[in-house]
Amino acid sequence: MKITQTSSFLAMAVALSMTAPVAAHAAEADAGPATTTAADAAAAASIADPGEAIVVTGVRGEPRSAIDSPVPVDVFSAKDLEQVSYTDTNDVLATISPSYTVSRQPISDGATFIRPASLRGLPTDKTLVLVNGKRRHRAALVQIGGSGTQGPDIATIPSIALKNVQVLRDGAAAQYGSDAIAGVINFILKDDTRGLEINAQTGQYYAGDGFNYNVSANWGIGIGDRGFIDISAEYEHADRTSRATQYCESYFCVDTYAATHPDYAAGVKAEYGDGVVQRWGRPKSEAVRGFVNAGYDFSDQAQFYAFGNYSRSKAVSDFFYRYPHNGTIEYVRKPDGSLWWPLDIFPGGFTPQFRGKVIDYSGVAGLKGELGDDFTYDVSARYGRDEIDYTIDHTINPSMGPDTPTSFAPGNLINTEKQFQIDLTKGFDLGLESPLLFAWGGSYLEESYNIEQGGADSYFAGPYSQPDPWGFCASGAPTAAGAAVIANGSTLNCADSSDPVYQVMGVGSNGFPGYSPTFSGIYKRHSYAVYGDLSTDITDRLFVEGALRWESYSDFPEQVIYKVAARYKLTDSLAFRASMGTGFRAPTPGQQGTTNVSTRISETGEPIASGLFPANSAVAAAIGASPLKPEKSVNYAAGLTANFGQFTLTLDGYWIKLKDRLNAVSPIAIVDDCDTSTPGIQTDCAGYRGNLVAAGVVGANSIGQVQYFANAFNTVTKGFDLVASYNKPWGGGMTTKATLALNYNETDFDGSVSSIFNAEDQFDFLNGVPKWKGILTLNHTMGALGLMARATYYGPYKNSDGGATITKTQNFGGSVYVDLEASYTFMQNYKLSVGARNVFDHYPDPGLFEAGQGRIYRSDSVVDWQGGYYYASVSLKF
Q: What residue spans of 400-512 are helical by DSSP H?
């Protein structure tokens, strides 16, 4: 399959008019002045103090300090990153940036392995991720629920490879292209020419599980006096955690059923020992990650650069427990009329084990330099590939009955990107405070998303996908075949509608059916972009910048967006800054092509098969879907910056209107008789099973609900960020640094969404995430001794239950997590650290609705529910 559309004449003309195919979503905004490139500016960054930290993201011209930037940018140094005990870069950012959050989703298909995150309350794919100023390729995973996010996998970037991280908290699509609606995260790689650093850390949770160890190294090598190669590598192993109780619900309780079924009790004991049948927690995982950054100066006018990564990780996690008589473990009749059920294979029921292997690699190479007369250039090319290989075992294909295997290969997902880019700058002396910098360039980008077909058994519709597969009954009476098995001793009763002969079983590997030929294939597209940017200091107090961008996609109409920003110094210590811009985000080929059938829990607590189908497919069209279109945004921001010696403060407010926001619709219940009175959002026959059958959906008779992605609604997101920092030198080698970072964020619907979201989904969308997050960090040094204390606050939030009509709500209180660490540096190059995260072992409020099946806490919450963790680490530098 291929998504295509004839490119416009304008796109071709622009591409041919340039000296090379020009490149996407330019990172050119990282360029310094006419004589300074992005990497040069990054190399010059001073990271001792937030007010003095040099930013190369979101602004052109002379490199500026964070406090002098016309847009809010957080700069986190390598030292800041080292003071976070997490090894996953997602968790590192969430720990130090109040605008960034990430959740742990232990039973959520691929989201178990590639975790969803957000910036300023918007999903990951509304934030553009850069490495050394170049766009980072997306992961192969499309989140199957909610926002349908497909963004880069930040976990593939080892933190030891980072010189600093710059988080631009402002819309920047006009500068960087699609995705930069909420902001930009730019990871600047280390570029050392000498030295070796080795770090090792180990720890585990207070609960006695989740043992973790990590070993990482960074090695800088000089190439004469003209270049460098900086190599980083990391290995991590993490055992699983479990924060669960035994499975016991009103509809099924393990201990109660075991008390009256000895064979089942013995099976549970043999399979799960004294543990729970379904573990809720962090999955078991293992990862090897590496990054290489290199540069070489051919001359003062030409510098070569290259960087790339390779990452290989794997993880395994539980799915929902399958208990007797839950729709999956049911009796069926074999060809001889006797009975079979899955407990013959799994006497204690079974919990499918979902395994994912993620392979990610990329390469970027370019040439940059100065051509004289304040004229710079940067020409680059990049390639990125991310692949997820799935395996599911300890499960069955129910429709195959006794012939089912117990391990399946449901297929793979592959996302690839190729990009060519050129960025140019020219300074013009117009008699202003600084030269007028004109930056321009463009891009060409190719993207593809490949859904690879799974093994046949993973999607095969076996004989038990239909009632009475052996033709034993007709009109409630035995046929000749039925009479024959009855004569041989079968208990077959054709007159009883509950007889196992009529049982319909689910199709495909239970928990995650494989990708069938119908829903496999490659989705491709390409795009062109051209941009221009002007910036200057008009006076010694006023800086202004404006950007204009045109993009054309092969599968979407052309887009023209803009941005303006300014900063005005009210006094030498106080300044006002503001920005306004438009943005867009083109749905990815993955979001347009992804399909999934998974097991979810219904409102009654029973597992049901839930299907997600591409919006442009015949299946989705039959249930009311329309082809996707780009999301569009308007961003306004304004703030104040203050710098009073050792004290700095920034306060920035923002307002983001997002139109045609991508999201999955509320599940549509599948009915057999086109009953429009079915509770929920169904008001017509969209959920008629006959529509699925007519569209050729394998296993249509066993699917209980369906969804699709839609440009579901418009939203307005608003809030503010406050960052304050104070450095206090005490003398005698003692200093104290205090940093407070606070974010308030809320989102409202802009218009009615009742045709897309039921009442529960509307309430949870608006209230299910804390609106407040604050981080207070204290660092105190006394010579070789370092002490760190960090308090993270998550505000209250709410949740509801009821589906079409909210019947009850739950208020979650705020949570405070305290981290402590002590370090000692000896012989200058060796450091030993000990500490604890969540030192007081705090847990959030237990969930009342988004719980059950042994789950205690809301597993999708951004508020951590793993408990306290203690660790020790050692760092060696040579």
A: 456-459, 480-487
Q: How many CB atoms lie within 10 A of CB 255?
A: 11
Q: How far apart are CA 536 and CA 542, in angstroms?
A: 9
Sign of CA dihedral 857, 859, 861, 867: positive
Q: H-helix or E-strand containing 759?
A: helix 759-767
Number of other residues whose CB lies within 10 A of the CB of residue 73: 27
Name beta bridge partners: 289: 234, 311
Take residue 612 and report the two structure tokens written for it: 């997600």
- Rounded-to-integer distance, Cα 189 and Cα 191, Å: 6
| Alpha carbon distance 835, 740 (integer Å) | 21
Q: Rounded to an integer, what distance in angstroms lies between the CA atom of residue 134 and that of residue 25?
A: 8
Query: Using an 8 Å Cβ cutoff, are 693 and 657 in contact?
Result: no
Give Cβ neighbours of residue 139 (< 8 Å, ≥ 6 apart). 114, 150, 151, 152, 153, 358, 360, 386, 388, 415
Q: Give the residue from 181, 99, 226, 72 showing the smallest Cα distance to 650.
A: 72
Among 237, 235, 239, 358, CA closest to 288: 235
Query: Which has the minimum average pLDDT: 163-172, 205-214, 600-609, 821-830?
Result: 600-609
CB 531 within 8 A of CB 549: yes
What is the DSSP secondary-structure string of 81-105?
A: HHT----SHHHHHHHH-TTEEE---
pLDDT in tens, 295-313: 999 998 999 999 999 999 9
Residues 345-370: what's their mean pLDDT? 95
Alpha-carbon dihedral angle through residues 707, 708, 714, 717, given to the nearest 10 degrees: 70
Give 431's contacts (C-beta < 8 A, 6+ positions apart).
Answer: none
Strand, helix or coil for residue 576: strand
**Which residue, among 422, 466, 478, has the nearest Cα to 445 in the 3D structure?**
422
Tens-digit pLDDT profile for residues 671-705: 777 655 555 444 456 667 777 777 767 667 767 77
Domain assignments of the chain as residue spans, ordered by start = 9-276+291-467+503-877
Q: What is the pLDDT of residues 733-752, one digit of tens each?
A: 899 999 999 999 999 999 99
In sequence order, the β-bridge partners of residue 855 are 244, 852
- Residues β-bridged to residue 607: 601
Alpha-carbon torsion (359, 310, 152, 160), positive or negative: positive
Pick from 437, 428, 373: nearest CA to 61: 437
The two most distant CA atoms of the chain are separated, in Å, by 105
**Is the pLDDT reported for residue 4 higher than 90?**
no
The pTM score is: 0.88
Q: Report the alpha-carbon distance of residue 522 to residue 448 in Å, rounded.
A: 7
Distance CA 101, CA 95 (A): 8
- Contact of 356 with 411, CB cutoff 8 Å: no
Pair of tokens at residue 243:
């924060």
Q: Are 582 and 561 in contact (CB under 8 A)?
A: yes
Where would I find the beta strands (DSSP E) of 732-771?
Answer: 734-749
Rounded Cα–Cα distance for residues 82 and 76 (Å): 10
Dump the DSSP string for 320-376: --B-BTSSSB--EE-TTS-EE-GGGT-TT-B--EEEEEEEEEEEEEEEEEEEETTEE
**CA–CA separation, 641 vs 120, rounded Å?**
20
What is the model's pLDDT at position 123? 87
pLDDT tens digits for range 619-663: 777 777 888 999 999 999 999 999 998 999 999 999 999 999 998
Return the CATH fold of 9-276+291-467+503-877. Answer: Maltoporin; Chain A (2.40.170)
CA distance 349 to 329: 8
Integer Cα distance of 135 and 129 in angstroms = 6
Give the three-class secondary structure for 16.
Answer: helix
> Rounded to whole angstroms, how far apart are CA atoms 165 and 158?
12
Distance CA 301, CA 306 (A): 17
SS3 30: helix
